[in-house]
Design brief:
Layout lengths: L6 H9 E4 L5 E4 L2 E4 L5 H10 L9 E3 L18 H17 L2 E2 L10 H7 L8 E4 L13 E4 L2 H10 L1 E4 L3 E8 L8 H12 L7 E6 L1 H4 L3 H9 L8 E3 L4 H7 L8 H11 L12 E6 L6 E3 L7 E3 L14 H12 L14 E4 L1 H4 L2 H11 L9 E4 L4 H9 L2 H8 L2 E2 L20 E4 L14 E4 L2 H10 L5 H8 L1
Parallel strand pairs: 3-4, 3-6, 4-5, 6-7, 9-10, 9-12, 10-11, 15-16, 15-18, 16-17, 18-19
Antiparallel strand pairs: 1-2, 2-8, 13-14
Helix pairs in contact: 2-5, 6-8, 13-15, 13-16
The structure holds 3-isopropylmalic acid and iron/sulfur cluster (SF4).
The site of 3-isopropylmalic acid has 8 residues, from loops.
Length: about 475
């Protein structure tokens, strides 16, 4: 009998091609996702060495970070650096014969939304991308993590990756979530508890009733931010919901291949008695709608709280908090709900899926953006956009005064024209609130789509439960 194994152990074991004395392994890679930012040098390396892409049919590229999201974007990209990167991806995709969704393709979008949507991401796979938020794909019970540009080249050339195994960490969310609490609140609450380094050296498996109860979209939101908690990857065991989501997608297996895949996928769970090196348990009922107040995703508090005093922290965090508050323009002791916002951004690979847009639209229906607040909704892919338009969500956003945009990373990272002005404060559904991330001097408060929608209506950070109470 083999020893009980975790889900991570199983996927790892199934992909080891070679193991060296010191435990370093060569892993087979099932899916390689590529975007324009981290791939140009990798393709250049192949070109110089006269090599081909080893498995073009397993390599999928899409431009997302640098693309404008305005309706006239077919006219091209003004910024030279951005244009060069996107042009290079166009050329590399063509020259190397990989799967490609160019800007003009309705399927184009943020790489982490496109992969699952097109059925490239499947349970039990190893998925890599030159992007830290590759963890998103772990929601399918895939081992998915970010890699650097030199590794991108290695995977392009060999379809393998040199890796050392991480330790196993279990994050269990027990019981039910309370009304107004979402997947985003779970993932932020976990980081608030463990810190941005709490997952360092680990692959996290999220489990428990509250995780099982999440939709696939919600599970992707949770796994997306595993990296913000320092983990190598985050994953969730596949179940009927996973299979249902995958079934019929363009690149999902069909017919007998589907049956065979399903039989394998059903073996992908952590065995009874398997050992975790670290365990964190949070009661679902204890999670409140949260927002970030600082410049790290761990700077998170329930919306009912106040801006903390730097002295309330220990060690190096005291100075970090002081600097954060200074950058964010906040005073200790002020109520989080008294923080006024100038902008609201709904989108990103964390919360740019159809369910996120539905949830935000539900709050915004028949309402208007507070005076002086600008709002932008950026669907995560062209297909999400179409669906949202068909469902009437786009009209709700537009009637509320939001700009309705084309798919891309947009404001999540100031690599395209969508940026905050210095000092501008934004309620955002993205995953990083770092200094200058959304534009130099811009101030970001991370939260769920419903919380962002609530802030849009009132013009300040708002407890979604208060809005819910009003509408009952
Ligand atoms: C540009 C890219 C390499 C980067 C990442 O790795 O995550 C970006 O997607 C981000 O979210 O900061
Ligand atoms: S949406 Fe944001 S977090 Fe996601 S890949 Fe793009 S820049 Fe990175």
């Amino acid at each position: 009998m083999t020893a009980p194994r975790t889900l991570y152990d199983k996927i790892w074991d199934d992909h080891v091609v070679d193991r060296s004395e010191d435990g370093t392994c060569l892993l087979y890679i099932d899916r390689h996702l590529v975007h324009e930012v981290t791939s140009p040098q990798a393709f250049e390396g192949l070109r110089m060495a006269g090599r081909k892409v080893r498995a073009p049919e397993k390599t999928i590229a899409v431009p997302d970070h640098n693309v404008p999201t305005t309706w006239d974007r077919e006219k091209g990209i003004d910024n030279e650096e951005s244009r060069i990167q996107v042009d290079a991806l166009d050329r590399n995709a063509r020259d190397f014969g990989i799967n490609y969704y160019p800007v003009s393709d309705i399927r184009q979008g943020i790489v982490h939304i496109v992969g699952p949507e097109q059925g490239w991401t499947l349970p039990g796979m190893t998925v890599v991308c030159g992007d830290s938020h590759t963890a998103t794909h772990g929601a399918f019970g895939a081992l998915a993590h970010g890699i650097g540009t030199s590794e991108v080249e290695h995977v392009l050339a060999t379809q393998t990756l040199i890796q050392k195994k991480s330790k196993n960490m279990k994050v269990e969310i027990t019981g039910k979530l309370l009304p107004g609490v979402t997947a985003k609140d779970i993932t932020l609450a976990v980081i608030g508890k463990t810190g941005t380094a709490g997952g360092t050296g680990y692959v996290i498996e999220y489990c428990g009733e509250a995780i099982r109860d999440l939709s696939m979209e919600g599970r992707m939101t949770v796994c997306n931010m595993a990296i913000e908690g320092g983990a190598r990857a985050g994953l969730i065991a596949p179940d009927e919901k996973t299979f249902e989501y995958v079934k019929g997608r363009p690149h999902a297996p069909k017919g007998a291949a589907w049956e065979a895949a399903l039989a394998y996928w059903k073996t992908l769970f952590t065995d009874e008695g398997a050992q975790f090196d670290k365990v964190v348990t949070i009661r679902g009922e204890d999670i409140a709608p949260v927002v970030t107040w600082g410049t790290s995703p761990e700077d998170v508090l329930p919306i009912t709280d106040v801006v903390p005093a730097p002295e309330s922290f220990a060690g190096g965090k005291v100075e970090a908090a002081r600097r954060s508050l200074d950058y964010m323009g906040l005073t200790p002791g002020m109520k989080l709900t008294d923080i006024k916002v100038d902008a609201v951004f709904i989108g990103s690979c964390t919360n740019g899926r159809i369910e996120d847009l539905r949830a935000a639209a539900e709050v915004l229906k028949g309402k208007k953006l507070a005076p002086g607040v600008r709002g932008m909704v950026v669907p995560g892919s062209g297909l999400v956009r179409l669906q949202a338009e068909e469902e009437g969500l786009a009209d709700i956003f537009k009637e509320a005064g939001f700009e309705w945009r084309l798919a891309g990373c947009s404001m999540c990272l100031g690599m395209n024209p969508d940026q905050l002005a210095p000092g501008e404060r934004c309620a955002a559904t993205s995953n990083r609130n770092f200094e200058g991330r959304m534009g130099r001097g811009g101030r970001t408060h991370l939260m769920s789509p419903v919380m962002a929608a609530a802030a849009a209506i009132t013009g300040h950070l708002t407890d979604i439960r208060d809005i819910m109470a009003e509408t009952v």
